[in-house]
Amino acid sequence: MVRTYLDHLAVERGLSRNTLSSYSRDLRRYTQFLASTEIADLDEVTEATVAEFLASLRAGSGGEPALRASSAARTVVAVRGLHRFALRESITNQDPAAAIRPPTPPKRLPRALPLDDVLALIEAAGFDGTPKATRDQALLEFLYGTGSRIGEAVALDVDDIDLERGTVMLHGKGGKDRVVPVGGFARTAIDAYLVRGRPVFAAAGGGSPALFLNTRGGRLSRQSAWTILQLTAERAGIRTTIGPHTLRHSFATHLLDGGADVRVVQELLGHASVTTTQVYTMVTVDRLREVYATSHPRARRPVT
Q1: Is 132 a catalytic residue?
Q2: Hey, how many other C-beta atoms are within 10 angstroms of the C-beta on 120?
Q3: Catalytic one among 68, 84, 173, 178?
Q4: Is-catalytic flag, 149?
Q5: Does residue 171 have an active-site annotation?
Q6: What pTM was estimated for this model as a whole?
């Protein structure tokens, strides 16, 4: 049943490989839980069973650590989808998960780097001018200049980017493509990489069409790109916690700080809903409050 559902998500819903992998892990955890309670058929599952499973996720059981609210919520979404699919396909006669609500993750503001840190990061990437440094600098310029996810950047082929027009076709989540502009600094860095870096790596491989190559000539992996970001941040002396989406968050925050419309930023980021993008406006409000508190002569309470 799980395999059939995952095939449905892949073929008809077009979910990404990473999302399918996460759902597969979540549903494996669920079927193991059902097996531990001696349930062998989805028709035997009750609402209480699903609620008990959710409680086990949050508390930890069977040697498994407790899941964070965000991970537990994703698991419950996968389980709800499985039961809804089984009912729709007339495989079961009920949907015991319909009334189960996933836990609400705490709202976390995205971390954005100050512009000076972004510039230091990009400069540190190209510190010695080698083909690898040229590639790393192009990668970081691209991430910050387009707001793309790391996965979207490493999935690019050379033909996806048009340096003359200054645009790139990004392949987003759920098979949704979007065209976004590529800024002048990013175009210059990528052009330098295509001339001085990529040919060196391509000579060691088998003709991969990927834009960003590893030293063996194959497509750069997400993990390798994430490692490049971490190591470069250390070299630049950046003490702020760096995450895989740090440059994406910085891209969005700096655009809004500069007066960009939130719906334009939504399109650039590839968010399905503007609500997702609006979390960045909270960051800029915090920044406004900080500037106000330190700049306005009547912002502070009088000392008594």
Answers
A1: no
A2: 18
A3: 173
A4: yes
A5: no
A6: 0.65
